Please model this.
Amino acid sequence: MTILHLPVDRAAGVPLHRQIYEGYRRAILDGRIRPGQRVPSTRALAEDLGVSRLPVLAAYDQLLHEGYLAARPGSGTFVSDAVPDDLLRSPAPAGSRPRPVRAAPRPAPRARDYGGLGPFRVSLPALDQFPHAAWARMVARHAHALSHAQMAYSDPAGTTALRVAVADHLRTARGVRCEADQVLVVSGSQAALRITAAALLGEGDRVAMEEPGYPFARAALGANGAETVPVPVDEEGLSVARLRRSERRVRAVYVTPSHQYPLGMSLTAARRFALLEWAARREAWVIEDDYDSEYRYVSRPLGALQGMDPNERVVYIGTFSKVLFPALRMGYLVVPPALWQRFMEVRTTFDLLSPTLYQLVLAEFLSEGHFARHLRRMRGVYARRRAALLAGLARHCGGRLTVHNADAGLHIAVLLADGLDDREAVRRMAARGLTATALSPCYADQARARSGLLLGFGGFTERRLVEATRVLGEVLGGSA
Amino acid sequence: MTILHLPVDRAAGVPLHRQIYEGYRRAILDGRIRPGQRVPSTRALAEDLGVSRLPVLAAYDQLLHEGYLAARPGSGTFVSDAVPDDLLRSPAPAGSRPRPVRAAPRPAPRARDYGGLGPFRVSLPALDQFPHAAWARMVARHAHALSHAQMAYSDPAGTTALRVAVADHLRTARGVRCEADQVLVVSGSQAALRITAAALLGEGDRVAMEEPGYPFARAALGANGAETVPVPVDEEGLSVARLRRSERRVRAVYVTPSHQYPLGMSLTAARRFALLEWAARREAWVIEDDYDSEYRYVSRPLGALQGMDPNERVVYIGTFSKVLFPALRMGYLVVPPALWQRFMEVRTTFDLLSPTLYQLVLAEFLSEGHFARHLRRMRGVYARRRAALLAGLARHCGGRLTVHNADAGLHIAVLLADGLDDREAVRRMAARGLTATALSPCYADQARARSGLLLGFGGFTERRLVEATRVLGEVLGGSA
Model:
């Protein structure tokens, strides 16, 4: 129960009880307080307004008498559910300023599930396998122990413990060459992309993007007026030769070397060296989005591009969304020392820091080994889910699609047989409860777009995945 | 303990045990794994590499023998603390690519307290009065009960429950005219400003700012290449007459009508109507930053500017940082319906959603009345702290400063006597443990800047405030 914002004025010619009555009546009529909402006790209201209880009692008495308020013995006084509709729709009382008439309140917005969370939703980890109880215990413990300093403002770069833990993890597991003072903790990888764009790219700058590429990265990198230049990928990843032939100066290039989004291949070692040499010679920055590098099924991972670069021209982006859970909203940048000051300035115009509670929990989760243990356990889980998806596709969808790449990550890319439109397929799948992602919107050049689907398997059990491939087969109208 | 990223290749001419030995040796020498860091058990490593234990045992044996690793019986195997410095500083082994030599790891970054948290720090609420135990219990309960859907992606606008609760609160307490479907939950008011800037302002657009004004708002609004146009404030707030005389088109104007930042006055009713009429006629947007409107000591608050606008041209920004605690990082926008789609597009390029756990906790905190109760209790707390600060200033600092405005909010603005430089005063105060904010950097036009201080009183007890004014008096070298 919030106290109504109600300006009363002792000096006005109108008696206080009348001002209070009129204030509440108007607030009810124009919907600022709604039927069923509780109003304060006369004592609380009098105290809040700094007046005696008498005018408040008089005003409430009249509001009750006229049916605007209703008393429920034992639980307080409420705006009446029975305020007649015609009263609610009446124009505002004379003397008030004109307002747009908004008769009945709009219904509360329905929660959207952000495109659906059905089988094949990409970027969804195995939430059923998350060590939920241990995590919740840590959250509870840190929430109870939160100090005043931890509730206040703190270092925009992140807590020291978390930055050290992230640097240790990245050096060891991903071969990233970094110190903790290069780690910038941010609110997820999308925020990291947006901060990188603001730090490196301005109006008229050019940034090279994988074609096809991650649409949200394209939106973030182009948001400040930079031009995104598509550079094709082939089976070895980004075509550095095509990048080299680009005549106008490119200030940065965005790549997903571990697991190309959307197509799934990894950037070969030869291409990596070529890309880093190009960046050094052209003094361009490389933005490495290592969004789901942790899982690889076919061969050992190559490690991060950043770790191969002697010239410190790589901005490295990682996220906890795909290893832990998306609603956590925590990610990080590893920033070359020469850019650190610039990134910090930009970061503080975006948001001053990331929530401290989750930083404390994450630092413990990493440094106490829970994170590494979870990662290792998930390798087996995802290998089985991937195998189930591939088997299901072979059984139910053969002939209508071909698997393009399934070496790594939490989704596989498939290409649809000629004549099948991927957006239409996604719509029809949605009607059957499946949340696939179309490949063609990942192309900047729609004329060259291939028709395909990204099928996420991380968030679904083997049984659900096989069942989903059966439905997919029906939707595509094909059989082996 | 994370497993080292270690590419082994059965097909290579080098035996596996040699590859593993060489991989670990290099990782230790170039600092990817550090003295004292634990290495995995031979069993775990063999499993992870997909090789038998024999080559792993052989490699570990050699590493132990050469002193790179050390076994601690009962607790595992670690990188030796005694790896000689000259080894660590040696160039990388032949055949590896050149890298910048970074001999010893840099020390872990020291935590910065973001400009200090001593007495007079602005924007700091009474953390000692926060209902910490009740809040922590709610956090713990929601953390334990978090469903899979709540761990996944969800509506970028925020959870329905929180949007409804925010809309109810704003309608009732601030006179904001809004429905829940206009509420966009974001990561604090800085994020709200940056999203607003990206939604409304592009390269070459002009946005009017209060002069003096909030420097972080100026940075956020100008970040995409928009030009900020300073418009002076006087005792009635922003000079709408000066805004009207501005010849070139201004696309938006940023105001803090409830409590002007930094000077503290509120925008008068006459100016409010004039501003809204100007905005309607010029089809400009008004960005209302209601950052600490909840507390007013002198008269009843005027309510939000947004609620007086029949034309839906106001973008309203609020935050929980100053009512609850800053490290929460939660704020919200109330967006005019005509701009909703645009704001949602921009928001998803920034960060996909705000952390769900805190959204659930906040929704309960608001709808169960904890929030309103806390607000009401804090009114008395802040009134007493403000009075203590004013009394202390009168006693210890008279003659060296004059109080400019102390009507509202969590800080008061004072002007320094002629000849006192506010930045120098802030530096000298910092040396005595005080965290004041200088007024002059709030001016875009430094030639007209006044010398003054913003003295936050929300986060400090009466005793600490009085003691701090005594120190301030000494620093300013004055006496009554």
